[in-house]
Automatic annotation (TrEMBL):
NCBIfam families: PRK00696.1, sucCoAbeta. Its EC number is 6.2.1.5. The lineage of its organism: Bacteria, Pseudomonadati, Pseudomonadota, Alphaproteobacteria, Sphingomonadales. GO terms for molecular function: ATP binding; magnesium ion binding; malate-CoA ligase activity; succinate-CoA ligase (ADP-forming) activity; succinate-CoA ligase (GDP-forming) activity. Substrate binds at N274, G331, I332, M333. This is Succinate--CoA ligase [ADP-forming] subunit beta. The gene is sucC. HAMAP family: Succ_CoA_beta.
Amino acid sequence: MNIHEYQAKELLAKFGVPVPAGFAALSVEEAVEAAKKLPGPLYVVKAQIHAGGRGKGKFKELGPDAKGGVRLAKTLDDVRAAAAEMLGNTLVTIQTGEHGKQVNRLYVTDGVDIAKEFYLALLVNRASGQIGMVVSTEGGMDIETVAHDTPEKITTIDIDPATGFMPHHGRAVAAALGLEGDLAKQASSTASKLYDAFLGTDAEQIEINPLAVTDDGKLMVLDAKVGFDGNAMFRHKDLMELRDETEEDPAELEASKYDLAYIKLDGDIGCMVNGAGLAMATMDIIKLNGMFPANFLDVGGGASKEKVTAAFKIILADPNVKGILVNIFGGIMKCDIIADGIVAAAKEVNLSVPLVVRLEGTNVQQGKDILANSGLPIVAANDLGDAAQKIVAEVKKAA
C-alpha cells in the first residue's frame, strides 16, 4: 500500500524525522490558506499522485510548455495560479505512463534554500535477509540513471534487525555522504529515526529524494515516498485510513475485495491461475507463443465459486482482452469448484471471447465433466503447452 508525500512526511515527523512545514489542500482556496500558515516568502506547490518524476512531468491539458507538478511560488497569487493549473488536470510522468494520473490533492510546503542534495532509501535486501539502507551523494536525480551510469556513487549499508540500528551504521551513512562534524551527527540521527519508522510501520520502502542540507546547515527531508507491506496492514488500522483508493487501478481495487492477486498488463490474453509461480509460467508461455498476457491473476489455493466468478468478471472488464486462458492445478483448490465458477461466470457475463481451460489435480475429471456439459464453447487443453497454443490459435481465428 502506498501513500501520498504529505502523508509520508506527517508520518515520518512522528518519528522525529526533520521535514519542512506543509499542509495538504483539496482546492485552490485551501492551497492559498495553507500558504498563509507558512512563514514564506518562498512556497512549494506539489501535485500529490502515487508516482515519481512529478517535477519533470507534464500536464496533458496544459500543453508541452507548461510547468510540471512541483512549482516554486513567491507570492500567494503564485500559489493560487499553480493550484488552479494543477487541480483536476492529468499529470503524466515517467512512472505513470502515457495515460497519467489526475491531480486531486496538493501539498503546499515551506521553501528552503538548498546547499546540497542526497539520496537515502530503506528497503528489504532479499540477498542478505537484512534491511538495506541505500545512500548516494547524487540526490535529486533519477537514482536508476545513477545506478546504471555511476554505480560507485551508491552505497548499501545492511542492518541486521536482530541488533537494530547501531552507531557504526550512522557513521557509515555520514561517511558515504561525505558529511563531517554536526552534519554527520544529523545524518546519523536522521538515518536512525528513518530506520525506526521503517520497522514501526512495517514499511516495504522508504525513499528520501532529496535529503537536503540547507544553507543554514540543517539536514532535512524534502521529499518522501513510503510504501507498506500489505500483509502487515492488519496491525496498522491507522495506516489503512491513509489509503487513497482513487489512486489505485479500479480492477486491482476490485480484486483486493475478493483477496485476489491481480495486476493489469498491456497484453490481450487474460489469465486466471492458482499460484504465483504457475501464473508466471503461464504468462511466459503465452508470450512464447506469440501473444502477450493481459494480466497477472492468482486466485489462490482455496478459492470459492464466488471468488472465481469475481476473477472472471475482473478479467473481462478489460476491453483489451481477446481471449482467456484458465490454468489450474488442483491441490487444495478442487478442479470441480473452479469449473463451477468458470461456468457461472461465463453465463453471467455472456462470454464473448475464446476460453481455453487446462485443469489438473484434485477432482480433475469432475471438473472436466462440468465444463463439457455446460453447453458453453469452452476449449479443453491437456497441458500448459497445449493450452497456450490453443488460446493463441482461437484468438487469431476470432480476429
